[in-house]
TrEMBL record:
Family recorded in the similarity comment: Belongs to the UPF0301 (AlgH) family.
NCBIfam families to which the protein is assigned, alphabetical: PRK00228.1-1
Pfam families in the cross-refs: DUF179
Organism from which the protein derives: Phytopseudomonas seleniipraecipitans
GO CC aspect terms: cytosol
Designated name of the protein: UPF0301 protein SAMN05216381_1934
Length: 189
């Protein structure tokens, strides 16, 4: 029988505390795709990397001109692991060559989802990221014990509709917290 606590943070946000020193995660909010006793995986959802879907499609299909809408679709830095690998979060239901069912959401890793989005046939709500954030067994739990992160259930409005520069504050607000009022000092009582 599976331990109910082993995936407790799956489909949650990790909200970096103001004292987060790691430049990969300072001032980030992460959507946790998986969390178990083996480790955790998530995507940073508020840090665009400067690329657009048009830039990516120019690499995948150099002989085709990307649709104009692709020029305004940002690509996010999902995390420091495998930064050349793409991930697309979207509401569940849409199936592509490589889609993982996450419950209310799906995550696709095949190129066909990018082409479908570009052609207007893909999921209307999506977040495209290169790379991911990963933790080994017990690593995330240790960071949580050190007060590096706040956690709360994920919210699709924040994930897909809130402007990226407002996502960190909006996720903290789900907990009734204004990060600007927290100290950058960490400690335990």
């Amino acid at each position: 029988m599976k331990d109910a606590s082993s995936s407790i943070l799956k489909n949650h946000f990790l909200i970096a505390m103001p004292h987060m020193a790691d430049p990969n995660f300072a001032q980030t909010v992460i959507y946790l795709i998986e969390h178990s006793d083996q480790g955790a995986m998530g995507l940073v959802i508020n840090r665009p990397n400067g690329l657009t879907l048009a830039d990516v499609l120019e690499q995948l299909r150099p002989d085709s001109e990307p649709a104009v809408l692709c020029q305004s679709l940002p690509i996010f830095s999902g995390g420091p692991v495998q930064t050349d690998r793409g991930f697309v979060l979207h509401p569940s239901g849409a199936q592509f060559q490589a889609t993982l069912d996450l419950g209310e959401l799906g995550m696709s890793t095949s190129q066909d989802v990018l082409f479908a989005i570009a052609e207007g046939n893909g999921p209307a709500r999506h977040l495209i990221a290169l790379g991911y954030a990963g933790w080994g067994a017990g690593q995330l739990e240790a960071e949580l014990a050190d007060n590096a992160w706040l956690t709360c259930p994920a919210d699709q409005t924040i994930l897909f509709e809130t402007p990226y520069e407002q996502r960190l504050g909006a996720a903290a607000a789900l907990l009734g917290i204004d990060l600007n009022l927290l100290t950058a000092q960490a400690g335990h009582a």
